[in-house]
Amino acid sequence: MGLPTYPESYWLATASMPSYGKLEEDLSTEVAVIGGGIAGITTACLLAREGKRVVLATADKLLNGTTGYTTAKLTAQHDLIYDEYIGHFGEEKARLYYEANMEGLEFVRRLVSEAGIDCDFAEEDAWIYTNSGSKLEAVEKEYEAYKRLGIPGSLEKSIPLTVPARLAVVMRGQARFHPVPYLRHLTEEFVRLGGRIFEDTTIDKVEENGDTVTVTSADGRTITCGDAVSCSHFPIPDSGFYFARLHCESSYAIAVRAPGELPRGMYISAEKPNRSVRTITYGGEKLLLLGGESHKVGQKEPGFVHYEALEDFAKKEFGATDIVYRWSAQDFEATDKLPYIGHVSEGKKHIYVATGFRKWGMTTSVVAARLLTDLILGRDNRYAELYSPSRFHADPDVGTLAKENLNVAGQLISGKLEWVRRKPEDLGPDEGGHVRVNGRKAGAYRSPEGELFVVDTTCRHMGCEVAWNDGDRTWDCPCHGSRYTFRGEVIEGPAKKDLERLS
Ligand SMILES: Cc1cc2nc3c(=O)[nH]c(=O)nc-3n(C[C@H](O)[C@H](O)[C@H](O)COP(=O)(O)OP(=O)(O)OC[C@H]3O[C@@H](n4cnc5c(N)ncnc54)[C@H](O)[C@@H]3O)c2cc1C
Ligand code: FES
Hints:
Helix content: 25-40%
GO molecular function: 2 iron, 2 sulfur cluster binding; metal ion binding; monooxygenase activity; oxidoreductase activity, acting on paired donors, with incorporation or reduction of molecular oxygen
Structural class: alpha+beta
GO cellular component, one term: cytoplasm
Radius of gyration: 22 Å
Pfam family, one: Rieske
Organism: Cohnella xylanilytica
Bound molecules: flavin-adenine dinucleotide, FE2/S2 (inorganic) cluster
Strand content: 25-35%
Number of helices: 11
Number of strands: 26
Low-confidence stretches: none
Keywords: 2Fe-2S, Disulfide bond, Iron, Iron-sulfur, Metal-binding
């Protein structure tokens, strides 16, 4: 068994999206939606259903962000969270969070069934399990929270997997699917309703002036509109200090062939390094999808070791014979662990944001699309206050905020001080890392064919030193999660400009 050289997402390898041209003229519309992931596509489609004229603009291609690299569990079980939410926000808000996400799941279930979308949708229970004494109490408390909130579930002393587990909390009636055919359907509906899509269109600025919003692409093209929605993962504009309120986590996945019956149900471990398990049964192919190894982007040894750890888990626990696909992606998390959905900041009446999905955006994106549609149409929505980006919770926001920003400051300084001896000539085929060029620290990668790519490793967002990720051959920023290809091209914001190429 050997891992393929380059990461490839199962979802994008087995189903495709329609493609669209880039924005090449100035235009005007009622609403501009930025971002071609599940949040942007769903929001654009719901607004078009309401009769709005909508333009969707995205950098790169549709689904090339996190949505194309997800594990696609559709669930309101977002790790061990309900006991914590009750403690921080109270029972009513914790219940609202559950209900919002179950409505998101129900939206997908109904659409799949009514439109007959062939997207491997299957109803399954979701399990959080632990084999560690230190997490037993947390799992028990989570089950107590389920009971208080009326969440259908149970506490189990074993799980139907060969993976060792002493206790598990189960949430009933959840689901999983293949996001690409599902989102292809929504995209085609959007276009049928008159929506326009522009790919390869990086948005540089979103500015509000009275009742007019101007969205400007990196090429200088403008979309003039009444409202703009940023579903671009990192908000544009960052007028709400999101760089200080969000952090970005990487996570890894592999799809494997394994002997015997594939397990039913979706599983995630309570302890770190986390492990996630579900099956794929799409197009006659049966695979086991294993994920986990989360860490902050650009920190804690990014890269290949994480794929190897998942591979070991696949072999040991499931007798995996083949790693067929492997991929990684990242998602943002707010300091108080609740997504930000609503007006981007208090002063902006016509610019909206949806971000901070904490690696649980499949249902939350529907919550976001509905909430943003209601806000734009001036309708009430019972989740508006819960998700409002202007919310302020003294606990735990302030402490976490201070810790996050100390972490960023630490990364900024330590990256710059590190001394490197290695020169570009020292790199072997398919090897990358920091090197010294003309007395100055730089980053280099040598392709398997021997071509050398040298970049300035100063992140184009706020100047932190990017780290080499040998698993994905990317440069990852430890401060706010920007990622770049080995050529220096941006693949994840907040940075909007490529790393400077030195050769
Ligand atoms: C490994 C992994 C596993 C996961 N598993 C699950 C799961 O099982 N269940 C679940 O619910 N969630 C899961 N998630 C989370 C979920 O996949 C994400 O929350 C969701 O896909 C985010 O969707 P999005 O539309 O907000 O972002 P994205 O899909 O990242 O879309 C953002 C879009 O914005 C575009 N963009 C960015 N900047 C600009 C710009 N300046 N101009 C124009 N466009 C721009 C990007 O190109 C991209 O198209 C997982 C996440 C990871 C990383
Ligand atoms: S992402 Fe902010 S400095 Fe790199």
